[in-house]
Write a structure and sequence with these properties.
Distance between the termini: 41 Å
Number of domains: 2
Largest sheet: 8 strands, mixed
CATH topology of the largest domain: Rossmann fold
Shape: globular
Number of strands: 13
CATH superfamily of the largest domain: NAD(P)-binding Rossmann-like Domain
Radius of gyration: 21 Å
Structural class: alpha/beta
Order of helices and strands: HEHEHEHEHEEHHHEEEEHEHHEHEH
Helix content: 25-40%
Strand content: 15-25%
CATH class of the largest domain: Alpha Beta
Number of helices: 13
Strand order of the largest sheet: 3-2-1-4-5-6-7-8
Length: 347
């Protein structure tokens, strides 16, 4: 299937959020503005440093010391009629979903796991696709996460690849091969255009692994941990080999529409999400805290029926999986709070 007039109209009508105007965000802005995307919203609160110019191709020598968003607006305007809006507010768990809302999809070009988790949680909450990439030294990864993909496609999220609290050195600490940023960033832009237009096969359920030294791009399956076959990959497999070792699939958790009488309800969302409402009597245990002290949780919950809830279900499935692995009878509230509220409204 070609792009065609319909695809061009979809591109012109799309709004794309790009987190970070650095090594990955720079080529993505160039590619999407050249393609004629209707609106690009760029989130970045950093100023340009001289060392950035080695890999952040949208900035120029005269831009050093100025906000990165300034050169994004200038260069994009020289390329097409794409409207560029910039957000200089740093994203947090409290404001990310509100600031990102309104875009059709998000490209995450940040280089810290704290930022990645904030962006991923917001995209999960908003049910928008997240085109995700990372580069380090001579290796790059690109994939698509989506908590609410089209029917028949498994949801895959950041936590299926990297557990909460993962850490990795920033590019500034270990370095990155400059041309690799262009390669990974342009691949991310390609994924965005495929999602916008509906052509091709997005990298949902697959992860592209770039080895700049070998000059290769390979792929491996990436499955939601609740349904991972032996061929699925996890963070420990990447990016060195690209070949996933055989492993048993983790136990999946059943789903329920409503907590049963006497069940212990565990809400694994963040504090700002809890403020919008939760189930009566629910215990608030953020996912990272629950997984970080799983033994204590097991001691409290052993022998009891446990219902785990989050906003749309992804984090709850991960928590329930960990609890079931440890012997706790944990199930997931189907569709999270969004699904629960929807069922109540339609009843």
């Amino acid at each position: 299937m070609g792009l065609g007039p319909d695809g061009q109209r979809r591109i012109a009508a799309a709004t794309v959020g790009i987190i970070g105007a650095g090594g990955l965000g720079s080529p993505a802005v160039l590619a999407l503005a050249s393609a004629g995307v209707g609106r690009i919203v760029v989130f970045d609160d950093d100023d340009i440093e001289l060392s950035n110019l080695q890999r952040q191709v949208i900035h120029r020598l005269q831009d050093v010391g100025r906000p990165k968003t300034d050169s994004v607006v200038r260069v994009a305007a020289e390329m097409s009629e794409t409207e560029v809006r910039v957000v200089g507010t740093r994203l947090t768990h409290d404001n990310a979903a509100e600031l990102i809302s309104g875009v059709d999809l998000v490209l995450d070009g940040t280089d810290s796991f704290e930022s990645r988790e904030i962006v991923a949680a917001a995209c999960e909450r908003l049910a928008v696709p997240l085109v995700w990439g990372t580069v380090q030294e001579f290796a790059g990864l690109v994939t698509v996460f989506w908590s609410a993909p089209p029917e028949g496609t498994d949801a895959v999220q950041l936590n299926d690849l990297y557990p909460p609290g993962s850490e990795a050195p920033a590019c500034s600490a270990v370095g990155v091969f400059g041309p690799l940023c262009l390669q990974a960033g342009s691949l991310m832009a390609s994924e965005a255009l495929k999602l916008i237009t509906g052509i091709g096969q997005p990298l949902l359920g697959r992860i592209a692994m770039i080895d700049a030294l070998a000059g290769t791009v390979r792929e491996a399956p990436l499955r939601a941990a609740r349904t991972s076959p032996a061929s699925g990959v996890t963070a420990s497999d990447l990016p060195a080999s690209g070949v996933a070792p055989s492993r048993p699939a983790p136990p999946s958790a059943p789903e329920v529409d409503d907590p049963g009488e006497g069940a212990v309800v565990i809400d694994v969302r963040e504090a700002d999400e809890i403020a919008s409402g939760t189930l009566p009597g629910a215990q608030h245990r953020p996912l990272a805290a629950l997984l970080g002290d799983i033994d204590a949780a097991v001691g409290e919950l052993s022998g009891r029926e446990v219902v785990v809830v989050c906003q749309v279900g992804g984090r709850a499935r991960r928590a329930a999986r960990a609890l079931r692995t440890a012997g706790v009878d944990a199930v997931v509230l189907r569709g999270g709070m969004d699904g629960y509220n929807s069922r109540r409204q339609s009843a």
